[in-house]
Design goal:
Its main location: cytoplasm. Its EC number is 6.3.5.3. One of its GO terms (cellular component) is cytoplasm. Belongs to the PurS family. By secondary structure, the protein is an alpha+beta fold. The chain has a single domain, classed as Mth169, Chain: A. Helices cover 32% and strands 29% of the residues. It is elongated, with a radius of gyration of 16 Å.
Length: 76
């Protein structure tokens, strides 16, 4: 059993890495890119019976900085 956690900066939080990627894409000729937000995906191997609530607790305590980041949990 696995969980996949998607972590992204909240709207309104400056994303310098995303801006650097957007700038680089423009430099490579991809003019149609208006904005880029960069995040992370964390895949966790879980013991059988681990609940989504437990993974959510992991996010709240360690995996996401909930002041500036939002997250979603996908059990796979």
């Amino acid at each position: 059993m696995k969980a996949r956690v998607h972590v992204m900066l909240k709207d309104g939080v400056l994303d310098p890495q995303g801006e650097a990627v957007r700038h680089a894409l423009h430099g490579l000729g991809f003019e149609g890119v208006g904005g880029v937000r960069q995040g992370k995906v964390i895949e966790i191997e879980l013991a059988e019976g681990t609940t989504e609530a437990t993974v959510t607790e992991m996010c709240e305590k360690l995996l996401a900085n909930t002041v500036i980041e939002s997250y979603s949990v996908e059990m796979i």
